[in-house]
Structures are given as C-alpha cells and as structure tokens.
Amino acid sequence: xxxxxxxxxxxxxxxxxxxxxxxxxxxxxxxxxxxxxxxxxxxxxxxxxxxxxxxxxxxxxxxxxxx
Length: 67
Hints:
The chain is mainly α.
C-alpha cells in the first residue's frame, strides 16, 4: 500500500468521523477510539493497513459509545 494512500485513508476516517456530530462527548469518544483502535490494529496485524482499519473501526465505535 502506498504511503500517501494510507495517509488519505486515515485522514478521511478521522475527518469523516469527527464531522458527523458537533457534540464534544462524541468527538472525544471518536478520538479515543481512533487512538486505541489504531494501536490495537497495528499491534495485532503488524501492518499499517491493520492500524488504519483499527483506527477507523475504533472511531466509529468510540463515537457510538459516547452518544
């Protein structure tokens, strides 16, 4: 996977997730989910792609948990 493509995917996951709500609690949950999910996905798969998928999923789940 090209580095610029991975950067684009991460940017869209974070920007798309944070723009869905203006509630600070939801944004805080998304931010925490992105960090934890990215770390977990990266450690489990030992790849940047896994980290990107983990960050995206963590952001979605974190935002939903804090609604």
